[in-house]
Write a structure and sequence with these properties.
alpha/beta, eight-stranded mixed beta sheet, two-stranded antiparallel ribbon, about 40% helix
Length: about 270
């Protein structure tokens, strides 16, 4: 795009997202920390609490969001406008997986990915939302960079595990967000521990203290510590929500508490 076309595109995006109150980028510096699981279930919990929520999947090379929320409907495209389907009441979802054949690789370089994200932001009719949760791929590449550059009021939630290797990469992600002059709402430590179903003993699968170390180092609040529950594997594969299928569990309660922290902190902001 030439400068005039780019300015017009940015104006279209600003107009389209102005009715979204809170925009949250869920990201991490490392793969394998359960970032998409966290993004999906935070969005589901927000919707279950009655907030009008959108879930945007910009993990273009590995789009799993639609499967994890059990999305069966396809977006409707009318005169260049894309109407996202509702996976559940209060939850609209858009993912590149709705536009490509199942199992087809997305072989795109940076400009193609940027164009797709511009379309998700400018051409998808999100309407009025309380929250737009954006699931980003691991690292600090084109996808999170495009969103951070485009949405000036975006805040980030950074996902880690307790493991030192994960923490090292998450530090890079935090510094990336800071370099882009965006705020970080908080840190979520995923897979903090496993509680033995037989004896109740807490097992630290990936060590401990990673999220707390990041909180102390960067003065960013640790807003959630999520236990690992083996039942989560099947629920994620079959598109079942933790907040509806695991009510009363330690994991569901941890997600609810994390959502309460998010709501409290965006109100303060």
């Amino acid at each position: 795009m030439n400068p005039k076309e780019m300015a017009e595109r940015m104006e279209t995006i600003r107009d389209n997202v102005k009715s979204i109150k809170n925009k949250i980028l869920v990201m991490s510096g490392k793969g394998g920390v359960g970032k998409t699981t966290v993004a999906v279930n935070l969005a589901l919990a927000l919707a279950d609490e009655g907030f009008k929520t959108g879930l945007m999947d910009i993990d273009l090379h590995g789009p799993n969001v639609a499967r994890m929320v059990g999305l069966k409907k396809q977006p409707e495209v009318v005169e260049g406008q894309i109407f996202p389907p509702e996976a559940l009441p209060n939850l609209k979802v858009i993912s590149i997986s709705s536009f490509v054949e199942e199992d087809a690789p997305v072989i795109w370089r940076g400009p193609m990915k940027t164009t797709a994200i511009y379309q998700f932001l400018g051409d998808v009719m999100w309407g009025e939302l309380d929250f737009l949760v954006i699931d980003s791929p691991p690292g600090t590449g084109d996808e999170p960079l495009t969103v951070l550059q485009t949405l000036t009021d975006l805040v980030a939630v950074v996902v880690t595990t307790p493991q030192a290797v994960a923490v090292q990469d998450v530090k890079r992600a935090i510094n990336f967000v800071k370099t882009m002059h965006r705020d970080i709402l908080g840190i979520v430590e995923n897979m903090s521990y496993l509680r033995c179903p037989h004896c109740g003993e807490v097992i630290r699968l990936f060590g401990e203290g990673g999220g707390k170390d990041l909180e102390n180092l960067f003065n960013i609040p640790l807003i959630g510590s999520l236990p690992f529950d083996p039942a989560l594997v099947d629920f994620s594969d079959t598109g079942k929500s933790i907040v509806t299928n695991m009510r009363g569990s330690e994991l569901e309660n941890a997600y609810r508490e994390t959502v309460r922290e998010i709501v409290k902190r965006v109100k303060v902001q």
